[in-house]
Design goal:
alpha/beta; five-stranded mixed sheet; Beta-carbonic Anhydrase, Chain A; 4 helices; 123 residues
Length: 123
């Protein structure tokens, strides 16, 4: 696989750890990044249809134009865009996965949590 898709926060502290983790643990050469402040909240709560639609449109480009067959959705410690605790964010990540699987049933979707040491962990 050449491409994967990562939906994650715009926070610069998590950019490099996520990309390194994905390249080291999955057979990908490139990571299409879709960033928003607190994307697991956006997708998990599905209240802002404009933002949700924008994220989905960008995922479709990654899948249809780059052949991505793997999507990651993450949350992280100390998120300014989603200032809630780890448990709540993990619930939002799981709800995001369910939502994305309804739209992209043939694509593998994996949740990630980035902790207070900026370590990426699979859910």
């Amino acid at each position: 696989m050449t491409f994967c898709t990562s939906i994650h926060c715009m926070d610069g502290r998590i950019q490099e750890p996520i990309i390194k983790f994905l390249k080291n643990n999955y057979t990908v050469k490139y990571v299409d990044t879709i960033t928003e402040p607190g994307p697991c909240k956006i997708l998990g709560e599905n209240n802002n249809k404009t933002l949700v639609s924008s994220i989905i449109k960008r995922v479709e480009i990654s899948i249809n134009k780059h052949g991505s067959k793997l999507i990651f959705i993450s949350g992280h410690y100390d998120c300014a865009g989603n200032p809630t605790d780890e448990e709540k964010q993990k619930d939002q990540i799981n709800r995001s996965i369910k939502y994305l699987k309804d739209i992209f049933p043939n694509i593998e979707i994996i949740g990630l949590w980035i902790d207070n040491k900026w370590t990426v962990n699979s859910l």
